[in-house]
Amino acid sequence: MQECLYSASSGDSVLFIEDGVYGATSAFKERLRDDLSYFVLQNDAAARGLSACLLTGQCQPVDYSGFVELTEQADSVCSWF
Amino acid sequence: MQECLYSASSGDSVLFIEDGVYGATSAFKERLRDDLSYFVLQNDAAARGLSACLLTGQCQPVDYSGFVELTEQADSVCSWF
Amino acid sequence: MKSCNEMNYSIAIYGGPYSDQASLSALHFARALLKREHRIQRVFFYHDGVYNSSALVTPPQDEINVPTQWQTLASEHGIELVVCIAAAVRRGLLDEKEAKRYSKSSYNLAEGYTLSGLGQLIDASINCDKLITFGA
Amino acid sequence: MKSCNEMNYSIAIYGGPYSDQASLSALHFARALLKREHRIQRVFFYHDGVYNSSALVTPPQDEINVPTQWQTLASEHGIELVVCIAAAVRRGLLDEKEAKRYSKSSYNLAEGYTLSGLGQLIDASINCDKLITFGA
Amino acid sequence: MSELLIIFRKPPIGTSWAREAIDLALVGAAFGQQATLLFMGDGVYQLLSNQQPDQVEQKGTQAMMKALPMYDIDQVFVCEKSLSERGLRANLLDFECQSISQASLQKLLNSHRQVFNF
Amino acid sequence: MSELLIIFRKPPIGTSWAREAIDLALVGAAFGQQATLLFMGDGVYQLLSNQQPDQVEQKGTQAMMKALPMYDIDQVFVCEKSLSERGLRANLLDFECQSISQASLQKLLNSHRQVFNF
Questions:
Q1: What is the C-alpha to C-alpha distance for residues B48 and F47, in angstroms, rounded to an integer?
Q2: Which CATH number fits domain B2-72: 1.10.10.60, 3.40.605.10, 3.40.1260.10, 3.90.79.10?
Q3: Are E80 and E99 contacting, i.e. CB atoms less than 8 angstroms apart?
Q4: Contact call for B78 and E115, based on CB within 8 A
Q5: Residues of C with catalytic annotation?
Q6: Other C-beta atoms within 10 Å of E70: how many?
Q7: Does domain E2-117 have CATH number 3.40.50.300?
Q8: Is the ipTM of this complex over 0.90?
Q9: Structural domain boundaries of chain C?
Q10: Quick check: A71 and C132 in contact, CB under 8 A?
Q11: Is chain E adjacent to chain F, meaning 3+ CB pairs within 8 angstroms?
Q12: pTM of the model
């Protein structure tokens, strides 16, 4: 997560999926840069019991269809794991 | 590594193996507690190009036979990965 | 003719079927792609992802069988399931031809999966509109 | 009679043969154990460690074949190679009996390895002097 | 004093670690071994309530966790520091467990003959 | 401007990640794609000199790394921050590579059509 955020350019979108969704919880919100847009895959968050009150408000929830939309819009997609 | 060092009791021995040997480099020496004994598997360190000058002096090098000796001496052995 | 919104995707998977969520996430993503009327040309299995191609995977009855789901999706939508041959052979995934070449008495590559070179992943990155990776 | 220094070890392995160093480290450790005249009763393969038991693993010729090395060591020193059946079956490692049970046309468990329950790992932890785990 | 300590350090969904760790606890109990569970690191996420693993077509470990008392596994500990680092409080958790400090955690590891780390 | 960017983020020994990442770079080059390599995170350890993988009966990636120029792969970058966090300096490294800052690293990712992350 740290390496991803370090490498992203201003204005990039970041989607948290799988265990990455823990990175979208309030506990880690200080790590998030202000100049990126954040999304969280709600299926992965719900699967892990991360309700809206645990997630930071900076992350917009999306479903798999929203995940696809994000890839449609991006010039280039890079996965960090 | 952090969780292992957090859980160890004063006087315990810690052996770094596989990619764990990077934790025995000088760069991370501040993480090491003073009340534990440290060992590093020299085969794993040499395989990764970690010569003596990169490793912290707090860690005593052992080979696989030394690894076995450490397990002989310990009351209980717990692997962290 | 391709509409301006419809895109040609490929997917790369690096994680094994039950040890890692990668293959399952990719499956959900693939279904969402098809629902939005995109095309999936190829799914490429690399690193531990090659374990998805085993015909012998047998999860408990109340659990999803990820390799089988890929087979079904692939045959319904004309998706190529390509398994990196170098990564597969060293991990014990063989088709009939490789089993013969290495004098093994059986093979285990599931139907619908093809062993091929890493060039197929490079090809996907060149010729598809998008290549999405699910890591491990 | 057992000398007071000689101990009875078992080893647990959780990582696959080429994706992870666990199995290789365990092999080196096992050789060192035997050199110091300890006994190894059992090697237990769990999680992705079960991939070590495949008869179809075929590394390049200039690379070590870890599963074969375990077979050799086991037969020379009377070591049990036990593979967790639940972890194995879902990952596609079957012996002849399980292949028949699930109507699979082939099986791939290498000779010298036995599918058995997790109880064998608990048993090792109870009855051996030391159980050493190589994780993933 | 119980014999087995099983440490859960991986998150619950997406991989087989959590299930394989619980399986071991239950089999240990079936073999007549007293088993203690310790959740630390990302393993504490396994205790969160309202997990819906079916959202990603998985089974999760909730049902198995609920079966623990039937196997007489009632010693369940959670690392205080791991919880607080993740912004979690005990009221978010689904299971009765004792939150423990570093000193008690070290004692716990020391007092078990066999520790399984997952 | 090269087409493929391959990022190495895993340490070199013990797993097949490093080898599989290099394989991809070489195959990309064989397909006529200009490939750029970036080492960051624990991937910088792959550049250390004097690796002796035979000490653990492995092959390592040194030989393949030396073959890169033959495939016209000469754009090799290493993340400055990753090096310094690990107490490494460029003189410890076995390979000619350019050490880059965060700004250049971001530009590098932005300027490649396809990024493979290992």
A1: 10
A2: 3.40.1260.10
A3: yes
A4: yes
A5: 84
A6: 9
A7: no
A8: yes
A9: 8-134
A10: yes
A11: no
A12: 0.97
